[in-house]
Design brief:
Two copies of one chain form a homodimer. The first copy, chain A, has 397 residues and is an alpha/beta fold. Chain A has 13 helices and twelve strands. A seven-stranded mixed beta sheet of chain A has the order 2-8-7-6-5-3-4, with helices on both faces. In chain A, strands 9-12-11 form a three-stranded antiparallel beta sheet. In chain A, α4 packs parallel to α10. The longest helix of chain A has 23 residues.
Amino acid sequence: MRFSSKVKKCGLSPMRKFHPYAVAAKAAGKRIYHLNIGQPDIATPSQYFEAVRNFHQPVLAYSESPGMPALIEAILKYYEKHGMRFTQEEVLITTGGSEALQIVFNCVLDNGDEIIIPEPFYPNYNTMVNTCGAVIRPIPTSPEDGYFYADRARIEAAINERTRAIMCTNPGNPTGTVLTPEEMRMMVDVAKEHDLFLIGDEAYREFVYEENEPLRSMGEFEDAAENVVIIDTVSKRFSACGARIGCIISRNRELIGEALKYCQARLAVATLDQIASAALYDVGPEYFAAVKEEYRLRRDTVVAKLREIPGVICECPRGAFYLMAALPVDDADAFQQWLLTDFDDNGDTVMFAPGEPFYATPGKGKNEIRIAYVLKQQDLERAMDLLAKGIEAYNRR
Amino acid sequence: MRFSSKVKKCGLSPMRKFHPYAVAAKAAGKRIYHLNIGQPDIATPSQYFEAVRNFHQPVLAYSESPGMPALIEAILKYYEKHGMRFTQEEVLITTGGSEALQIVFNCVLDNGDEIIIPEPFYPNYNTMVNTCGAVIRPIPTSPEDGYFYADRARIEAAINERTRAIMCTNPGNPTGTVLTPEEMRMMVDVAKEHDLFLIGDEAYREFVYEENEPLRSMGEFEDAAENVVIIDTVSKRFSACGARIGCIISRNRELIGEALKYCQARLAVATLDQIASAALYDVGPEYFAAVKEEYRLRRDTVVAKLREIPGVICECPRGAFYLMAALPVDDADAFQQWLLTDFDDNGDTVMFAPGEPFYATPGKGKNEIRIAYVLKQQDLERAMDLLAKGIEAYNRR
């Protein structure tokens, strides 16, 4: 049987190949510290579960295709609190940020079109762009300059007649980079001047570690109403990844109208998860303050520990709960496998995400890794010690 | 801003245009009997809500990309009870049957490819096929022969070098037609002989109204392991449309491998809904017996009432909870609008789904309607009386 050329261009998760080795290591009694996945360990606010328990309708019916009004209202209020005004008609609820991305890409990307994305980037963008028959044009960055990409000349050099959109993951996954307000303005201006969509994937918006810095969003730029599309989700904001609730927000009503076609074709988003996600927006600022402080401490731990390892290149990231670093190893992928098969320290080893799959440019990222600092402080310290010992032993072998 | 040619080919829900008229009619004090939507009124089994209330983990985490093992196990047992054996690796959990369809279409349909679908068909197939850049090749049917399509010559006449798959919605939405075992065998044989996927959308599998007839599924045909793909969902089976839990089932491991790429790219299906849907599979046969009996009575009421209306053409459908009928009106769409704006009987009126959007062939279905018999017996009788009075008044006006 023949399969579509689009799916053939996509790949399975690059982490998948480590799974059997991880299983074998665990079976052999090793304990693995996981720095490889972006699943936060922070408790989901109880409001979620209370709302679910308080649902007492007899029929679990389809909700509205654009999303439940109560959830949209809660989201609008959240944005208003942060100085951004949107109307009910400018929001579409989706099954996670993932579906929001898929729908927006399908609306704006045709076969052969290009979307500009700074690299390294979230690898699932590959599958989503391939599905549209489109191509990712990366903006190159390097670990040496902290994965900085917000340079007008570099972005404009990537624009051609097939370019339809610029993707801006801010704060960045996997890099943790955060744009300054001036850099955001510049990105918006480039999009406006070249008639491009500016897709802001802002899943990690809350996770910026400067003191007293207000939340930032591409949604602030009302003068770019036609260009800006925001991808949002409750997954990281409320540590509710399993809710699969996200949304598309845009003042471009034509875009929303096109996206609604896809929302109607898949009928609706899960009813209970929408009701419960609306309740999440009731959590107070003390929740975010505590979560931010926790992650800030973890980031500082990881960065401090990394800087003690000779040969590691790593800037201190300003946001998200990831960082990329270049290691003094020949091949991070081979190193990861070796950590599972040939290394342990008192029965412990460590997993991270090798860097290559985060790049579109072949060969880049070979000695880089992504670390997700989603472990408790003590485990994180141990994990970083294991990484240091692993590097030393690997290069000595 | 420019949008993709694929989304431009898609349409918004054809029912949408009636929305303002329905709102106005309600505002004017009219009561509308809704025969236009497939949202069952049957209570969702309490097992669902109990499972949700019994969830006590602190973090609502991502589930596994292929689906939660407990839900897959429950589904495997259900199939085994009906004489079909699948393994854990042959099932992928999806966000409703809708996502299952989208993923399978993306796996098998390339730009310019064709998929054969008997018409009238579920209109959302249009958006899903358009998104792949592919084309629906309809198998024509007619109300006069009860929308019969399972004719080998007619199906083979639609096959050409671009054909990749045959879609078989069985029981049918919108027609309620149900294939005989011999017809199913023939469809499978055609798919095998021509190296085509046979996609069985079996959302309504439980809803077949003959006494003591065993459940049928394309999954029975183990000799067509490479060809058969089943689209399944808890939506109608358990009256749990708002759960958005479906699955892809196939013995074609290569297909499952390709589909897994999409499952990984969107990370996971909602966690609570999966846990709760697994619990749904604990409901006993008495649940299905009662639901079937209720729908059978409703179907009989609708068919009997329709046959009293002069000029209506309607075969008694054997399954699902829909039927198509040809009305003695010039234009079912104009008639629907008139029912909302110009008609009432003691303040009551009725809505159905006009037939044209269910067809791919232009101009077909103009005097047809789809009725969803998802109302209680008494309301259904009143709705059918309103339809009869409406037709008479419309043709007299």
